[in-house]
Each structure stands twice: as C-alpha cells, then as structure tokens.
Amino acid sequence: MDVIGRGEHAFADDQKFQAGEERKWRVEFVSIGGKSLDKFAISTDERIDRANELRLRGNDMFKKGRLLRALDYYERGSALMDVLEAEELGIPGKVDSVAAKKNQRIWQCQKPLLLNWALVLMKHHRWQEAERKCTEVLMDIDKLNVKALFRRGQCNVQLRFHQQARKDLSRAAELDTSIAPEVEREMVMVREMEMEEDKQDLPIAKKLVEGFVQAGDERSLRPPPVDPQVAPDPSSSLLGMLQTQEAAAEASDVNKDDYCRQREAIYNQFMKPGRVDDDE
Question: Phi/psi of residue 25, each to 5°?
C-alpha cells in the first residue's frame, strides 16, 4: 500500500518539519500482533510516569513549533489521568488515605497537561475548546490557578463574553500582581466590548425614555397626597368623659354616692398602664 503524508504528522519527532512537503511510503503488512496500552490494567504510578513522558515530549514539540504533534501528546497524556482511585470506604466520613494521596498525584500530573493542551488550542484559535480545558483545571483541580484564570479570560475575550472575561482576568491579577501588564492588555479589549455594548443599548434606552416623556403620566401632575387629619373624639379625653358622665347623672337624678363612684371609675381608667403615651 502506498501512503502519502503531509503536514506535521508526516515527520518523525527527530526530523525537521518542512511545511508543504510531502512524504511517501510503501507499506506492507506482514502480520498484526501485540496489544494496545490499557490504562485500566496498569498501576497509578505507571500511568503517571507514562503521562509525564508524553507531556515532556509534547513540550519538546511545542518548542520546535510543531503544535499538532504537541497537541497529540498532551491529549494522550491527559487521557491516562482520567481514571481515579476509589476514596470512599462505604462509611460516612471514612476515606481511604492511600487512594486520596494517589488521586492528588493524578490531579497534579493532569494540571499541566490540561493547561498546555489549552495553550495549543489557543494557538489554533480554538477558543471554546481551550476555555473548557481551563475550566476543568479550575473546577476539578485548582480553583485559584492563575494560568487557568488568565487563559480562560483570554478565551472569553475572543469569544466576546466580556463579563466573564473581566472576572477571570481581575481574579488572576489579584492572585499574581506580576502579570498586571498582560492583564491590562486584555482589559483594553474588555472595555472596548463594554463600550460597544453600551452604544448598542443607548438608542433603545433613549426610545424608552422618549416614550415615557411623550405619553406622560397623570399621577406626576397631581399634587402630593395629604394625609387626612382625623378629628379627635372629644369623648375619649378625660374632660370629655367627665362632662358626659355629669350630664347623664343630672338627667337620671343619680345619688351622690353613685355619682362619686362613676367619677372615680373614670379617673382610674386614665391611670391604668398600657395607654398610648406609655413606653413598651
């Protein structure tokens, strides 16, 4: 079978890549044997060693400008790290400390793979995929990782999600003040997007305001409401009650003793606690 290869994958790692050059091979399959690497069948230490080896090879390809080869190595290395040890022992609050330590090592190995993977995706302007890799780091491994925050902020700038970009970039600058110049360069674009959005919203806001002014509102033309003044009931005062009692006593010809008891009852009523003027 004749095979023609083009691009980065047509050149081995130790060969110099020539853009636009084709490479041709004649391949003959004599036999097929062996077995592929099963990540579920090897130990955690073996998977970590293999993933680190792939990361270093990816870094070497990245430095040589062979981004597609680097991307392949990062992706393969990351795939080895998505198998975690079971930490729960079936008892609430009980955790397998050995498994927990292994998982921490897996996460620490996974973090640079995801960050480097995101960087290569950004180089190819694959912003949405890169944003997801940064989010994986922040959600699963390290929520305060400066590189993940800054790179996700850059992705959100390119995706024109200026609100999330501002949050990520501001947080990254808070955690590491040394990247302030880089953050400010991205913030310039964030502010431009915000100003553009404000300009787009301005005509709509003006139209709404003009509509309210033209239509008017009868309530705005009315004088402010005045609380009605309720005239006090004269019979509720001490003097009023005494006068009412006196008139009733004269009309019914009440004797002196009953008259005095009625007056005393009225005075006692005003001396009882719990009236409006008392403090609680």
Answer: -135, 155
List the one residue out of 77, 75, 60, 53 whose CA is nearest residue 12. Answer: 60
Cα–Cα distance, 4 to 11 (Å, whole number): 12
Residue-wise burial string across 50-84, b where 16 or more C-beta atoms lie within 10 A, e elsewhere: bbeebbebbeebbeeebbebbbbbbebbbebbeee
The CA distance from 5 to 24, in Å, is 6
| Domain boundaries of the chain, sorted by first residue | 143-214, 236-271
> Which region holds residue 31: left if phi is over 0, alpha if psi is between -120 and 50, else beta?
beta
Alpha-carbon span 217 to 163, nearest angstrom: 36
Among candidates 5, 32, 7, 37, which has minimal Cα distance to 19? Answer: 7
In contact, 84 and 103? CB cutoff 8 Å: yes
Question: Confidence band (pLDDT; 50, 70, 90) for 228?
Answer: low
Q: How many residues does the chain have?
A: 280
pLDDT-derived band of residue 217, with 50, 70 and 90 as boundaries? low
Average pLDDT over residues 239-262: 76
Q: Per-residue pLDDT averaged across 102-121, rounded? A: 96
